[in-house]
Amino acid sequence: MDLLVIVPHPDDEVFGAGGTLLQYAERGLETGLITLTHGEAGRTLGLCPPEHLGELRAQELRRAAEILKIGYFELMDFPNARPNGAVEGEARGVGFARSTGVADHPEIVDLLMWRLELLRPRAIITFGPNGSNRHPDHVATHRFVTRAVANSGQRIAVFYYAPPQPLPEFIEGWLPPTHMRRIPMETLLQKLRAMAQHRTQALSVLQFMDRFAPRLALESFHLAGYQGPIQDELLWYARP
């Protein structure tokens, strides 16, 4: 496999890497997505009872993955933690009733090592040390992926989501971009379609579009261990 995205929640795949996933798939590269939770602690917007949110978000994710032409897709069922700073009624679900999230499941490292042995990805995209917004699931996923890659013995390029300028409250643990990809209009339109599939999270989608509009067409990443000029492709052979 050429590129594998590993994230904790449905919609984590599309904001920062949706255009890259689609472009690479259309160029004939093998792409994949592993999502660790059903996102049952998110908002429902009245579209379903809270206890059915995970099932509905799984359906949304599958539709988004189809639009992004993701070749390998796996949705796991680890519990989804309540976001930092969430208030009662803002983020509900069944996951944190039995666990605080993926951080309580170190066996994820072993599962990811198994997937790496099976898929043999050349590159992985996941969250950086601060999880972009310090969400506990994002931060835990960073740790688990990093550990799984180190333990796998494989040579895998690990890319972290890396906004060009972090919000002041999230600057700790931020890594500057080493790779920045401008998404062409025809790809951007499909990325927006994929974002629109996450209907239950429409407020998060709109917030991202409002606060980070330039990042819709600019996907930026930090390659672990890389020192050099900023590049425009994650994989040298991905150029059209």
TrEMBL record:
Organism, per UniProt? Meiothermus granaticius NBRC 107808
Pfam families per the record?
A: PIG-L (PF02585)
Q: Which UniProt keywords apply?
A: Hydrolase
Q: What is this protein called?
A: Putative N-acetyl-alpha-D-glucosaminyl L-malate deacetylase 2
InterPro entries, alphabetically? Answer: GlcNAc_PI_deacetylase-related, LmbE-like_dom_sf
Q: Report the EC number(s), separated by commas if there are several.
A: 3.5.1.-
GO MF annotations in UniProt: hydrolase activity, acting on carbon-nitrogen (but not peptide) bonds, in linear amides
Q: Which residues cross the membrane?
A: none
